Amino acid sequence: MREDVRKAWEWSNKFLFSISNILEKHFKGLTFVAPPQLDLKNCTDYIVTSNELKIACRIRDIPYFYKYGDFTIRNKRLSGTKTEWEKIKEGFGNFYFYGWGIPPNVIYYQIIDLNILRYPENVKIIDEIDNNQKYNKDHMTGFISIPRTTLEQFGCIKYTNY
Questions:
Q1: ∠ Cα 119 16 69 (to 5°)
Q2: Which DSSP state fits 10?
Q3: Number of domains in the chain
Q4: CA-to-CA distance for 113 and 95, rounded, in angstroms?
Q5: Could you tell me if 144 and 134 are in contact, meaning their C-beta atoms sit under 8 angstroms apart?
Q6: Which residues, 6 or more positions from 99, have their beta carbon under 8 angstroms from its beta carbon?
Q7: In which domain, by residue range, is 88 found?
Q8: Is 160's pLDDT higher than 70?
């Protein structure tokens, strides 16, 4: 595992307890962290046992909430490895937990219904956002930024605390 990926994983793992509590509150079931293979291949970070929901997850540092407050998702990789957006479009995952916090606490979050996000008319709009492609500092991965207002228009924000 690359050093930057390992550090990001360690940082996000500080939120496991906080995220699990939020998911259990909303989905009324025992939540556990998915095996790494599900995370890497199927856009699944958590599984809720009561209904076998598969939940993708991203947690960001709190300043990103105040500066942007958007939903960013990787949609390009120069390596050719499938991106989160490609996996979602293929049907992986039921929900996406997207939060901002200060370790170990999630401060703000939204839980996005991926089945609604995948509606063809929504995918078309999001793919058009692709024209505003942004790249990470490494220039190896690209992402799109979806404004909260767009998610609200789609009706795909299932739960939020802000």
A1: 50
A2: H
A3: 1
A4: 5
A5: yes
A6: 15, 19, 22, 57, 58, 59, 60, 106, 107, 108, 109, 110
A7: 3-160
A8: yes
